[in-house]
Amino acid sequence: MPGTPLGSHLLLGQPAMTLSAPDVTSLAVANPGMLVQSIDWLAIAPPLIAALAAIGVLLADLFLPAGKKKALGRLTAGGLALALIALLPLARGNTRSTFCLRNVAGATDNPLCSYVADHFALVFQLLALGGALIAALLSVHTVDEERLPGGEYWFLLLSSAAGAALLPASRDLATLVIALEVASLPAFALVALRRDGRGAEAALKFFLSSVTATAVMLLGISFVYAATGSLHLAAVADGLGHAPAQLKPLAEAGAALTLVGFAFKVAAVPFHFWLPDTYTGAPVPVAGYLSVVGKAAGLSGLVLATTIAFRPYGHTWGLALAVLAALTMTAGNVAALRQRGNTAHSAVRLLAWSSIGQAGYLLVPLAAAGYAGTDQPIGATAAYALIYGVVNLGAFAVVAAVSRRAGSRLDDYAGLFARRRWTALAMAFFLLCLAGLPPGVVGLFGKVVVFRAAVDAGLGWLAVVMAVNVVIALYYYLLWTAKLFAPAERVVTDGRLPTPLAATLGVTAVVAAVLSVAPQLVLQVAGGSLF
């Protein structure tokens, strides 16, 4: 009977060893850790709790009477809060890992693990689960007022959050793709739940672009696997470094296609075309969720693929990402300048283009990491993502509050201070944070950290492009801020905000204010390596 290729070349990029079927059986008996392993339940608790909460909401929806369906929103918020609490014991301890290949030649001292709860994973899990919790609070009134199917809505939100929380802890390409799709597939349906017709169109554009990105990514991963014989990120890096000359073109093509797939998810130019229409067609809380949690999921996958798996090609993808960052921030900010105040949904569309511009800033430290050959700048990306997540969700909360009575045009914000003083002050603060102006000090420090990462890596030209874009963005952020305090022709009372919406505004404003007073609470993430 012919031998079966099996062994270390599939795991560590080493020369193949041929084992017959009896050899495989004896090896498994001698090394039971290859087939049977324990699970670190504490390490996987955050995404697991979110997934179990999704199942619980789906089952509860079957048995709760129609008059008690509102309890599903509270159950969703409680599940996400519990998942966030599960991060605390992980933050205080050492790095934990599970689903590892042990007792394999060459992997005894450094086992290859599919799930690692290190500092990087915890920071992005905090962003994913915290962003999902804020989006859930923001959604309570939207589900009622727009008569969305509550059970389906909350189940899809929790499922997407579980995938987004799983992704930053994934350490093999298969788990990365699965987690990314678990985060993306429910998001398609969330966008389509809107009943006015725009939701279906937006969901279709989102779906087609995402499916295309996934197909390209899977093709790239198949090339990488063929060239290296492994899907584990660390083993892929080792395999790429020792790949035979005849396989290098295949490996390089696979790495490029994989990164193109992740660029779709991050909405980097030229793969950004789906985002503005998707945001304007989705319910406002879903647009806010996608702008923060969806972007964080794609960004964390891009970081893992580049800094770990494709580390041997660092200088190449570093330059490519620097160019993408420059194009993305420029396209996003210039397009935001073109938004007119009397155009329908111009407020959400401006935030959508602003989100693309912010994605360009987030790519700068990642490009610096490839150029400098170290993962030190990744902390700047994580810190800026946390800052952006808080203030952007706060801005979407204000949009949700204003659109309940007035509309979603920029002109609808004229004189908001006379109608809703605290809402206008909160929006002004969020916009100044996004612009990087006092008193939004945390936004300023975030941009400084990103700028410094580019300069330290020798990417002076990218730092100049970023500085120009920051000035461009000042115009439309300040123009929107000025509208808030413009004299109102007549003062109309909008009524009280729903409690969950008011709580969302309060929480995001307080967190942004605290970070502006003590920016070191989040900027300390940028001070060292996260891996």
Q: Can you describe what's shown?
A:
The protein has 531 residues and is mainly alpha-helical. The protein has a domain at 313-531. The protein contains 21 helices and four strands. Helix 3 packs parallel to helix 6 (150-166). NDH-1 is composed of 14 different subunits. Subunits NuoA, H, J, K, L, M, N constitute the membrane sector of the complex. It is an enzyme of class 7 (translocase). Residues 170-472 form the NADH:quinone oxidoreductase/Mrp antiporter transmembrane domain. Belongs to the complex I subunit 2 family.
Taking all Cα atoms into account, the compactness measure Rg is 24 Å
Summarize the biggest pleated sheet. 2 strands, antiparallel
Helix amount: 55-70%
Unreliable segments of 5+ consecutive residues: 1-30
Cross-sheet strand order for the largest sheet: 1-2
Distance between the termini: 45 Å
Query: What order do the SSEs take from the amino end to the carboxyl end, as H and E?
Result: EEHHHHEEHHHHHHHHHHHHHHHHH
Task: Please report the total strand number as a whole number.
Answer: 4
Secondary structure class reads mainly alpha
Write the layout of secondary structure elements.
Elements: E1 4-6, E2 17-19, H1 21-30, H2 45-63, H3 71-85, H4 87-92, E3 96-101, E4 112-117, H5 119-145, H6 150-166, H7 173-192, H8 198-228, H9 233-241, H10 248-266, H11 275-281, H12 284-309, H13 314-337, H14 346-372, H15 378-403, H16 416-419, H17 421-435, H18 441-456, H19 460-484, H20 499-517, H21 520-523
Antiparallel strand pairs: 1-2, 3-4
Helix pairs in contact: 2-3, 2-6, 3-5, 3-6, 5-6, 5-12, 5-15, 5-20, 6-7, 6-12, 7-8, 7-12, 8-9, 8-10, 8-11, 9-12, 10-12, 11-12, 11-14, 12-14, 12-15, 13-14, 13-19, 14-15, 14-18, 14-19, 15-17, 15-18, 15-20, 17-18, 17-19, 17-20, 18-19
